[in-house]
Design a protein that fits this description.
103 residues, 4-stranded antiparallel β-sheet, globular
């Protein structure tokens, strides 16, 4: 087992209601997943122990079942996370840009 570091980027910033729900969920307060917010965006910085990066991501994503209406847009590894994960190149690609609304 090893620790994996990655970020889960949300489709939209958390609403006030979602933020209130988040404060009540123990699964988001064990030190392995931390909310990072900025103007117009929300992401979670993650550190999970697992055999593989895929298993670590699945563990993190399983927590969102209890957070209604929140969509994870992409999983990202920045340069520091690549180094922490002993990886030379990104193994996970960001999501493609959203499709334009159909008429």
């Amino acid at each position: 087992m090893r620790n994996w570091y990655f970020s889960l980027v949300l489709q939209d910033a958390l609403t006030e209601e979602q933020d209130d729900t988040l404060t009540e969920l123990a699964s988001f307060h064990d030190g392995r997943i931390n909310l990072v917010e900025g103007p117009g965006y929300s992401r979670f910085s993650c550190s999970f122990e697992a055999e593989t990066l895929t298993q670590a991501i699945a563990d993190a994503l399983s927590r969102f079942v209890d957070l209604p209406g929140v969509l994870v847009r992409s999983v990202e590894l920045d340069e520091i996370q690549l180094e922490d994960n002993d990886m030379a190149t990104p193994a996970v690609l960001p999501a493609p840009p959203p499709l334009a609304d159909a008429p």
